[in-house]
């Protein structure tokens, strides 16, 4: 690693603000996660009926929150897959996008990857629905086909969504990807990094959320990460680095970059901390729902401050 990368990786830590009223509900988070990890077959690309049932569940829950809900179906290899889009606030004008993928990789329950992100998205929808008025349109999007074999292809649900916004010339202020937000470990040495020296900067305990953005990632990503850090009731490490650094583009935000939108990633750092990543051991009982709720509260606070 060269000196430039080390400088770019310096943590940018700020003060904390009090979380907003009506905090995320751990019981609701658990209910959503229990549903997601208990489908008849794993929610991977091979089980389209399961993915359809999950999409229907997400739509029902978002409607209960008061959202305007639409599905975005598209065909891949003779099968139809669908994103679920839940809109809050005014119909016209620029919008903010917050997204999480609901599919899994292979035959595993995917509690952290990415049940935690989807549960946070649903709870965020409930909290947004309680706001008396939103001056900004906010779209919460549940994506399909983030995982292999479609990762980094135009068949990813997030690519389809980002492309549709670009084609329609929709003004987008920015996008936030929720990717694995439920696994925490306070033990020394529980946190790993793509390069060893980063541990000297960020520490060896996996007890924080990372807000990841790329160099030149735009104003929205910079401002949102700052607001998120200040609002969070748990430690946040803000990271900025080149897109080629392993992990910086490992989720749906990468597709918004391709169309020139400012986007960032919120994550528990995935396999750099959670050794159950993409394994059958990625189960609900290993998650910390209290800290998942705090991570969700900070998303709401940052959105409202934007």
Describe this entry's structure for a reader.
- The chain has a single domain (3-305), classed as Aminopeptidase (3-Layer(aba) Sandwich).
- The longest helix has 19 residues, at 111-129.
- The protein has helices at residues 3-8, 26-37, 48-64, 111-129, 157-167, 198-202, 219-231, 253-257, 289-305, and strands spanning 68-76, 79-88, 95-101, 137-143, 172-179, 209-214, 236-241, 263-267.
- Helix 7 crosses helix 9 (289-305).
- The chain contains nine helices and eight strands.
- Strands 1-2-4-3-5-8-6-7 form an eight-stranded mixed beta sheet, with helices on both faces.
- With 306 residues, it is of the alpha/beta class.
Relevant terms:
single chain, 306 residues, alpha/beta, Aminopeptidase, 8 strands, globular
Helical residue percent band: 25-40%
The shape is: globular
The Cα radius of gyration reads 18 Å
Structural class: alpha/beta
For the biggest β-sheet, the strand order reads 1-2-4-3-5-8-6-7
Series of H and E elements: HHHEEEHEHEHEHEHEH
Low-pLDDT segments: 1-20
**Quaternary arrangement of the chains shown?**
single chain
Number of helices: 9
The largest β sheet comes out as:
8 strands, mixed
CATH-assigned fold name: Aminopeptidase
CATH 4th-level superfamily: Zn peptidases
CATH C-level name: Alpha Beta
**Which CATH-level-2 architecture?**
3-Layer(aba) Sandwich
Our measurement of the CA-to-CA distance between the termini, rounded to an integer number of angstroms, reads 35 Å
């Amino acid at each position: 690693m060269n000196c430039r990368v080390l400088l770019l990786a310096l943590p940018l830590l700020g003060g904390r603000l009090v979380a907003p009223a009506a905090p995320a509900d751990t019981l609701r988070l658990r209910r959503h996660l229990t549903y997601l990890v208990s489908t008849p077959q794993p929610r991977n690309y091979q089980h389209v009926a399961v993915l359809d049932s999950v999409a229907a569940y997400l739509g029902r829950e978002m409607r209960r929150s008061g959202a305007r809900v639409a599905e975005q179906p598209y065909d891949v290899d003779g099968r139809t897959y669908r994103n679920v889009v839940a809109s809050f606030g005014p119909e016209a004008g620029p919008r903010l996008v917050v997204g999480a993928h609901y599919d899994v990789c292979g035959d595993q329950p995917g509690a952290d990857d990415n049940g935690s992100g989807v549960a946070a998205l649903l709870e965020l929808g409930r909290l947004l629905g309680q706001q008396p008025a939103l001056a900004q349109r906010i779209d919460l999007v549940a994506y399909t086909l983030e995982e292999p074999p479609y990762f980094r292809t135009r068949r990813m649900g997030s690519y389809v969504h980002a492309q549709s916004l670009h084609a329609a010339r929709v003004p987008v202020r920015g996008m936030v990807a929720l990717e694995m937000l439920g696994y925490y470990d306070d033990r020394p040495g529980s946190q790993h990094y793509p390069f060893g020296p980063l541990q000297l900067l960020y520490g060896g305990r996996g007890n924080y959320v990372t807000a990841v953005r790329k160099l030149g990632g735009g104003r929205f990503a910079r401002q949102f990460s700052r607001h998120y850090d200040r609002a969070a009731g748990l430690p946040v490490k803000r990271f900025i680095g080149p897109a080629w650094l392993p992990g910086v583009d490992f989720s749906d935000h990468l597709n918004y970059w391709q169309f020139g939108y400012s986007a960032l990633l919120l994550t528990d750092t995935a396999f750099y901390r959670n050794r159950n990543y993409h394994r059958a051991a990625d189960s609900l009982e290993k998650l910390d729902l209290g800290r998942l709720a705090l991570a969700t509260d900070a998303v709401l606070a940052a959105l409202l401050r934007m």
